[in-house]
Amino acid sequence: MSAEIIDGKALAATFRGQIADEVNQFKTQTNVVPHLTAVLVGDDPASAVYVRNKQRSCEKAGIQSTLQRLPAETSEAELISIVESLNTDSGVHGILVQLPLPKQINETAILDVVNPLKDVDAFHPENVGLIVQGRPRYLPCTPYGIQQMILSTKMETAGKHAVILGRSEIVGKPMAMLLIQRGQGADATVTICHSRTQNLNEIVKTADIIIAAIGKPEFVTADMVKPGAVVIDVGINRVNDRLVGDVDFEGVKKVASAITPVPGGVGPMTIAMLLKNTLTAAGIQSGCQ
Ligand SMILES: Nc1nc2c(c(=O)[nH]1)N[C@@H](CN(C=O)c1ccc(C(=O)N[C@@H](CCC(=O)O)C(=O)O)cc1)CN2
């Protein structure tokens, strides 16, 4: 058996096309141009690439994008002050603070001050709370993209066992919330595994859906995967100049029914969902939703 490859690059292109049409319609109806401001602190090369890709995707979809680039030595107080001025700028609908931040800045302190209506990453506690309650304003971009990828496979998720590897605020925890909610592409039974989990391999082997987000190159191997499982790889690891995920793609694709590649899987969908959230944010702030 060889798995269906879930082509995130192609799916993201389809989404971006649909979002561009919706942006066009929105502009005609409201005379408002959705506007995202990204804040990038420091010189992390990967973060710079992701932010550039986000900006390019915005521009192609007709969304205005602005970059505030700040030096690596920026203090927490300085960053808070910049976010606060974006919060009150009525011309900015979405604020994105690229993570990770330099060591001297407490990420939580920053994410807590982003205006929740402009929080297109859905990292603010108010937006996290709304997700937990099953009435989201925005969905965090990576779990949102994964949800759309799972839906694209048309697999039945109700009652299935989804095992998430990793308990991060950005992926693991919100992904669990999306998978346990009621409805299509959800209604799953979820286990989150992490660095202190015992018998991790045995638990993963029972999964119908595996979401690997632990940042360990090619950690999930074929012997850990139940035949026919759907495997979503969130990892982006550079090993000897090669980009690999958290899943041993070549081995696992022989066992899984569907699998996402790295690159070209979850990453492009993360960016497409950011565009969707920015349009939603512009709608909310223009009184359209
Ligand atoms: N404010 C945020 N910070 C971070 C987020 C986030 O959602 N919001 N997620 C990650 C990084 N990230 C988006 O910011 C991101 C990572 C990777 C990709 C991507 O398209 N990857 C490509 C490979 C690109 C490469 O060569 O490195 C792929 O998988 O095909 C997009 C977005 C942490 N920070």
Automatic annotation (TrEMBL):
GO cellular component: cytosol
One GO term (biological process): L-histidine biosynthetic process
UniProt keyword annotations, A-Z: Amino-acid biosynthesis, Histidine biosynthesis, Hydrolase, Methionine biosynthesis, Multifunctional enzyme, NADP, One-carbon metabolism, Oxidoreductase, Purine biosynthesis
InterPro entries in the record: Aminoacid_DH-like_N_sf, NAD(P)-bd_dom_sf, THF_DH/CycHdrlase, THF_DH/CycHdrlase_cat_dom, THF_DH/CycHdrlase_CS, THF_DH/CycHdrlase_NAD-bd_dom
Enzyme Commission number(s) of this protein: 1.5.1.5, 3.5.4.9
Known pathway: One-carbon metabolism; tetrahydrofolate interconversion
Protein name, per record: Bifunctional protein FolD
Organism (species): Gimesia algae
